[in-house]
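Hello,

Following up on my earlier ticket. Below are the two sequence lines again, exactly as submitted.
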Amino acid sequence: MVAGPPNPHMNEPFITIEDLAIGYNNQPVMSGISLSVLHGSFTAILGANGSGKSTLLKTLLGLQPPIAGQIRIETPTGAPVAFGYVPQTLQLEPLYLLSGFHVALMGVYRRIGPGRRIPQGERAFVRECLQAAGAEGFAHQRFAELSGGQKQRVLIARALATRPDVLVLDEPTAGVDAAATHALLEFISQLHEERKLTILLVTHDLPLVRKHAHQVIWLHEGLIVTGAVADLLSPERMAALFELEIG
Amino acid sequence: METLLQILSPDFLLCNSVYTSVLIGFACPLVGVFLVLRRLVFMGVALPQISSTGVAVALSIPFWLGAKPGAHGPHTEHLLAFAGSTAFSLGAILVLALLERRGRGRPEGNLGTAYVVAAALSILLLSQNRYAEVGWLDLMKGEIIVVDNADLAITATTLTVVLAVLGLFYKELLFVSFDPAMAVTLGKNVVFWDVLLYILIGLTVSMSVLSVGPLISFGFLLIPPLTAHLFARNMRQFTIMASLLGGGVAFVGFGIAYRLDWPIGPTDVVLLGLVYGLAWGGQWLFRALAGTKKPPARAISENAKHNG
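Thanks for your patience. The regenerated structure is below:
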């Protein structure tokens, strides 16, 4: 089923990063990163454009090799971690004539061998995921023609179809209007609460983080600061840390 | 119609040329679909040219070694040409893909440079080699006249293998093309699947260039998928429509060229262009008349209902 059992490893370290250096072509964007993400936590990765949050995310997902240091991920079964990755919708080419259902179906490909057909059971599971994400009503429309919020729901359904250990969302509210942003984050919070799913959310939307996340990883001009939302996002603390003017 | 029936006859003198032309017409759009989707249209232009340069280089080797023209028989020459065409197209597609993956230079700059250098090299080799007098120029122009049974068998076998692999692993090839980042997070070896796709494209292009020349190869790689994309509603329709259009135009084009005594390659390409133009114009006219520039009302109401 889409809903997994309650996470018995809540608050144990899930992702541990030690002295990590990230960047491109051996040129570090950021180095000396050490932090941990707990099982079942809702963690926001914050930072301005160019601060390195996308690079950190790519490195975590294995899309970009680290320059130095290591990332340890401890899944309950010891199996390789299953990332439920929700990319920015703008990254996906609109020329592909794929319906929302076919995009979501890609979530089960990890369990299907090369050249194999997708079993009916997996197709039914994807329909469940689409229903859970509130995307079943437009799943058979062309993905490229959906609104920003609808696309995000299909991509979340696809991520759920991977049976993820962690849901990773890369700026899911980029290009989405305010009402849809609110609904999306409510839905993600609900997923987190009901399934105790570990969530990693990349964003630069402070109000959203204050409302939904528990833990913050803030990247700012080569510095990385982690902490609980209530501690880190208080106006005084932010001003002290980053010498920012808080409105 | 009489001409079309005539060229379908097994007794028709050029029946192997018809079969080859139609095979290429069916097969090229199937890999061309991926070039269009990956926005590698320039690669579709450059690859056939690079592949034909491979043919030119391979056929120049005996000349450079001092062998007489035709000394090793037509099949040796054909194999040599196939090796040259395949080596150049596979080598080029892998190097260009590697440069693109590593972000070295602008992709269109790399492809444009590769195209123009390959074209210039072909002309240089042609000007230095008397083999040009024995059919090479015909190949460059897209003349498909003499195709013996062995050549047809090699073409059919290669394209069958390409289509079988493409069909078997279509799901994986589509996935890594659409969302390579997601594929990596699911543990898929994206480099492997990319290389496999490039090998399939390279083999199809080299076989096509060898059989029908670079001009017609380029036409069949790109124009049928571009036309089919105007009407198709899903990937299956897109792929099948592109392939059927390519095969159909190859057949009709052959008939027209035979009837009017025109060169086959340019006739096919002009016909493809006409079909594309008519399709585009027809679609524009239909939309203008029906006023369907915007999504239908049902879709709009559902968007509003489900937005967010």
